[in-house]
Amino acid sequence: MSFSPNLIHPDAPLLGPLQNPVFLLGTDDLGRDLLSRLLVGLGISVGIGISTAVVAVVLGTAYGLLAARFENTRLAVIDTLLMRAIDVLYSLPAIVVVIWLGLYLSPVLSPFMGTSGASITGLILAIAGFSWPDTARLVRAQAALIHREAYLEAGHTLGFSAFRLARHHILPNLMGLLRVALLLTLPRAILTESTLSFIGLGVTPPYASLGTLANDGWQLVRIAPHIMLEAALVLVLLIGAFQIISNTTAPKHLA
């Protein structure tokens, strides 16, 4: 039997795992089925993580390609300035900046997509806004090597535009690197979202992620520790699985 994650059962509060054959992982203080809530929370956390990773990789790729375009040219100072800007970004306290961006973006987006939708979208953009520099550095380094290849120099000589060269010659050679960058960014994005949701600055009701479920369990940890433990265990297994996948698919010099 399956239940809605928000369906309340007043006669079955705080059941432990396997105490009831209907609620396999138990219930919370309102009698809501924890298995259903964990599955929904897992989907939201993964969805936010994938969305964040895609946005971060797109931003980082565009930035890295732009920087590599000016390396070893008369405008090489632009490449230097772009890379130094990333160093400045690295020097900032990441979690503070992400919180600030999230708090700023949510009210800006709320008139267009509602409070809950704005909080999730703002969270995705905030985390992505601080996750793209790693991809930018990887792309810049690899694209700079490609720019030295003879076939790309021939393209410059024939008058091909920078956009055409990037689309047809550089990006196809970066696809393996971008796949790895996506897999490396994904678990960090999920962990950041869960951390923010745990402290009440991430996903807001009626939605619930693994972070908010862990926070709910923390409020009841003395009388029902299984609520927090189950959410934490799912989060650890999820991040561990993505880390293993990224490590096994990454080239040796990136692993």
Your description of this structure?
With 255 residues, this protein is an all-alpha fold. The protein is 72% helix and 0% strand. The model has no long low-confidence stretch (mean pLDDT 87).
List keywords for this structure.
72% helix; elongated; 255 residues; mainly alpha
Give a short summary of the structure.
The chain is mainly α.
Explain the layout of strands and helices:
Layout: H1 34-69, H2 76-91, H3 94-128, H4 132-147, H5 150-157, H6 162-198, H7 210-219, H8 225-249
Helix pairs in contact: 1-2, 1-3, 1-4, 1-6, 1-7, 3-6, 4-6, 6-7, 6-8, 7-8
Structural class: mainly alpha
Overall body shape: elongated
Separate helix tally? 8
Largest sheet: none
Indicate the radius of gyration in whole angstroms. Answer: 22 Å
SSE order in H/E notation? HHHHHHHH
For the record, give the distance between the C-alpha atoms at the N and C termini, rounded to a whole number: 43 Å
Poorly predicted spans? none
Indicate the percent of residues in helices.
over 70%
Strand percent estimate: under 5%
The mean pLDDT is 87
Q: Total strand count, please? A: 0
